[in-house]
Recover the amino acids of this structure.
């Protein structure tokens, strides 16, 4: 399995894969964590599985060498062209006819690319996809991305990002007994324009008057932090909105247990791992439909989905939650059940069965654990319909 850097959530899944006892797993990392990821609370989580890093002096050559030396194995490669050494690995795998699958998000549509670059990546992508044995697209955005490159549905296995199942305390109410009347809405992530925190501030502002015990907690850092703080100050909300900075990844779950609702208002997120983290501790969510993890949300059951950049729609979702406190217990229960279905421990057997199907060891393609049996096609289809309707 080829992954760009170690991460807390990939570590959970890798250990769960080892625990199945069905795989001889080795992980190849392109590089150690960058300083900006460490500043966001990430750690080099490499315990519990076999791994190696590419030679930093010549990663491309080392990647090609490793492909050739392990050409009889099954390879799962994360991404296609963002990491040059992995692009070289994929090209080599395709050239020598090895068995490989691609595990990838869709590219961020807001990032501008030249016509020449689009052409080159499309040509390369189609060549790699044509020779691949399987695809693990991250969310319905990833499904659409692979289909545009020619991927076939019979060897496409819906995928995402996943964390380990939380402790039994996950299904409880808030751990903090100091102020049970306090209503706490949390944002966790990078404080950058793409995450849409400015939209959240506009949406929530009038709700503070209606709900005197309502507070917003912003957890994270980023290049928009100062502008967001100025926006909060200009709105006169410094007493109701607090900034808690960065939390280490191993402390996020315990912090979320004290919240009542998580909001991820992103303009774009290929997935959004914080949605998994909220569900892991039984916290409902409000999420933009431009987040891949929105496909985990059943509106009014474990959370709410709003149309990206629609402040009034976001405010309506917040109002539905705040004005219907009698629904909170059911929302928490449904969220915790979703958390169980998307835990790394539940996903690992699904990945193993997907690989067996990919290499024709089993006849029936497995259903992703978070998709209700019999609803797989409609869930992906709805996601693709949303994607088509949202495309400019």
């Amino acid at each position: 399995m080829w992954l760009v850097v170690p991460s807390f959530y990939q570590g959970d899944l890798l250990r769960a894969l080892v625990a199945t006892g069905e795989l001889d797993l080795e992980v190849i990392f392109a590089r150690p964590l960058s300083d900006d990821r460490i500043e966001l609370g990430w750690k080099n989580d490499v315990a519990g599985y076999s791994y190696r890093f590419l030679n930093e002096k010549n990663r491309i050559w080392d990647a090609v060498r490793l492909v050739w030396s392990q050409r009889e194995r099954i390879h799962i490669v994360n991404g296609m062209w963002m990491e040059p050494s992995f692009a070289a690995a994929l090209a080599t795998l395709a050239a020598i006819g090895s068995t490989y699958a691609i595990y990838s998000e869709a590219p961020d549509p807001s990032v501008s690319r030249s016509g020449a670059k689009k052409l080159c990546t499309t040509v390369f992508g189609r060549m790699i996809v044509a020779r691949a044995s399987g695809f693990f697209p991250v969310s319905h955005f990833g499904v659409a991305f692979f289909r545009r490159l020619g991927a076939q549905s019979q060897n496409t296995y819906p995928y995402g990002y996943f964390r380990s199942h939380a402790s039994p305390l996950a299904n409880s109410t808030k751990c903090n007994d100091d102020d049970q009347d306090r209503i706490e809405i949390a944002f966790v992530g990078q404080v950058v324009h793409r995450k849409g925190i400015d939209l959240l501030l506009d949406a929530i502002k009038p709700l503070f008057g209606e709900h005197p015990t309502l507070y917003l907690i912003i957890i994270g850092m980023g290049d928009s932090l100062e502008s967001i703080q100025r926006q909060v100050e200009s709105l006169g909300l410094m007493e109701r909105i607090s900034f808690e900075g960065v939390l280490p990844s191993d402390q996020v779950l315990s912090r979320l247990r004290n919240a009542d609702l998580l909001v991820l208002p992103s303009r774009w997120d290929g997935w959004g791992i914080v949605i998994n983290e909220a569900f892991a501790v039984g916290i409902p969510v409000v999420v933009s439909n431009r987040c891949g993890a929105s496909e985990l949300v059943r509106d009014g059951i474990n959370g709410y989905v709003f149309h990206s950049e629609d402040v009034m729609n976001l405010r309506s979702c917040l109002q539905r939650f705040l004005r219907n406190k009698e629904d909170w217990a059911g929302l928490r229960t449904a969220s915790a059940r979703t958390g169980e279905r998307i835990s790394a421990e539940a996903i690992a057997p699904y990945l193993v069965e997907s690989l067996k199907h990919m290499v024709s060891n089993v006849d029936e393609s497995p259903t992703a654990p978070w998709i209700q049996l019999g609803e797989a096609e409609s869930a992906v289809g709805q996601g693709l319909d949303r994607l088509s309707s949202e495309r400019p």
